[in-house]
């Protein structure tokens, strides 16, 4: 037991020293806050430009647009003809000008002249001209209240109801997708990273030939348990850092980005996250340990380790089916299938669409398959750890497990 | 009480017999040699002693009992395939591998300093293992083996890859450990090293013991009753000599069953021959091995 603890501590420390681990752990918080910083910067930089006074010239060939020349921050200055307006524009007296043709009432077209490049018509200019035209067209006909309503005919408020007609708990469609996918991705990263480190550490020791020195001091199962728990602790630390970073980020950024306030990481999501991470990690780590013991070099191990990634990532690739129909048969199947369970369950838990019995059943299946895999891995670990050269065939592996 | 007792141990891999019905014992405080060609089953036997692999049948007792975790702390093992963490420093490696043998970090550092000092490598203690030369790496590996002051030291091909200076250093270490009452089992295919160091020998070939006993006893058993002779002139006729063979620098005389070497030397002195060299031939372990392997 004491030796297992020594191995756990050693493996944990070794991985904390690895650059890839440090980068991966810090990358998520850094990217989040960097992205937020840039967003804030852009917003900040845009704001002071907006309230600047702007002068726009116009030529009224209809003869009906003489009033309401002040709209928000824009002042409209009349010119008698196009020539005059152009000179004013060149002399920078106005920022731009437009011509209202005599057939405007029937065609609705006006022509705008500008000097500076622009990607699209700025919102304030578009709205300003629109309001100016509308005010002149209707100002004499209707009340000022009606005029205001005509300018902004509606503010839209959408409420989603669930099947029973009650107001649904989540109202924002985007937030429904964001959290499950973010969770699924982070989960996949964390589990595959840390079990990948395990594979690396086993094959490295095999390649280095340290393994025999270690086995002269500890048993193969002590080595297996020590490695799995040491690297698992590091993985847990990583995912905790990510969770906390996202939680803090949502807290801080939702003040400015209203969309984020729809997202929330509740304590139960966090707790289930830890449980599913541990179980998922144990399953993958045991598989990777077995692969590591079978292969002589890291290169050889990579192809074998890839096989298990495919089913694990399935919920992410087919996220549409899970998020679109979280209680459907497909989503349920992926939640119960042990390899895809951790990620599928996390995606559904973050949507609050996982029934208690499903959690219980998926955890039972996951625990059972993790124990089975660990048991097989420890058998293979003992037999194949010191074998180099040709990879044993499937038949030999099965025989070895059966005999052990 | 024996330090090691092996009873009728057998082990096969993928249908190939590695060790078959092997039995031997090793006494406290001796240097025990295990010899045999490559692939004879030496490493497999040592791994079974260390409980790294389990025998298919038979029993092994170390210090009078079957091996358990605590027993491993009393054994130092130098595997044939040397291995250290390449990215770690010498001291880190020693402290970690020492900890796995139950040595506290402070004890390990103290002992490491002492042993590194002995081999003149103190200045390398903070270097990464990958920066060391091959020979240096081997010495560090040896220090790993004896860092925890084990009662039983198991060395698998310890001389492989060592230069003459380090070979002498290692021999010095082995004899010193023996003088301190440690038991040492030494496996090698280099028979001359065994002849120099070992008290008793187990010779294995194709997984089976072919010779087992004290070195002196084995050598006398295989003595071919001949003498090496160098002198000004050898008489044509000598009683008891049944044949002769000319070597480059000496002549070998083969004696009949009733004649002792001392009788030959007496005859020569009586006839007034001036002797430059007179030696009773003893076969080298190598020759004995070849003889046994062919005979078997």
Helicity range of chain B:
25-40%
Give the percentage of residues in beta strands of chain B: 25-35%
- Report the end-to-end length of chain B measured between terminal Cα atoms: 32 Å
The SSE string of chain A, one letter per element, is HHEEEHEHEHHHHHHHHHHHHH
User: What's the gyration radius of chain B in Å?
Assistant: 23 Å
Large-scale geometry of chain B? globular
N-to-C terminal Cα separation of chain A, in Å?
23 Å
The number of helical runs of chain A is 17
Strand order, main sheet of chain A: write it out: 2-3-1-4-5
Question: Which keywords apply here?
Answer:
A: 404 residues, mainly alpha, 2 domains, five-stranded mixed β-sheet, 17 helices, 5 strands, B: 296 residues, alpha/beta, six-stranded mixed β-sheet, 10 helices
Structure notes:
- The complex is a heterodimer of chains A (404) and B (296).
- Chain A is mainly alpha-helical.
- Chain A folds into 2 domains: 54-151, D-Maltodextrin-Binding Protein, domain 2; 171-403, no CATH class.
- Chain A is 66% helix and 6% strand.
- Chain A has 17 helices and 5 strands.
- Chain A has helices spanning 2-17, 19-46, 82-90, 104-107, 123-138, 144-151, 173-208, 210-215, 220-253, 267-294, 298-306, 309-317, 319-324, 329-336, 341-349, 356-384, 394-403, and strands spanning 54-60, 70-71, 74-79, 96-100, 111-114.
- Chain A has a 5-stranded mixed beta sheet.
- The longest helix of chain A is centred in the middle third of the chain and has 36 residues, at 173-208.
- The two termini of chain A are 23 Å apart.
- The mean pLDDT of chain A is 83.
- Chain B is α/β, with parallel strands linked by helices and 296 residues long.
- A 6-stranded mixed beta sheet of chain B has the order 5-6-7-3-8-9, with helices on both faces. In chain B, strands 11-12-10-13 form a 4-stranded antiparallel beta sheet, with helices on one face. Chain B has a 3-stranded antiparallel beta sheet with strand order 2-1-4, with helices on one face.
- In chain B, helix 3 crosses helix 4 (105-118).
- The model of chain B has no long low-confidence stretch (mean pLDDT 87).
- The A-B interface holds A 2-3, 6-7, 10, 205, 208-219, 386-387, 396 and B 13-14, 47, 50-53, 69, 72-73, 75, 77, 79, 81-86, 96-97, 99-102, 141, 144.
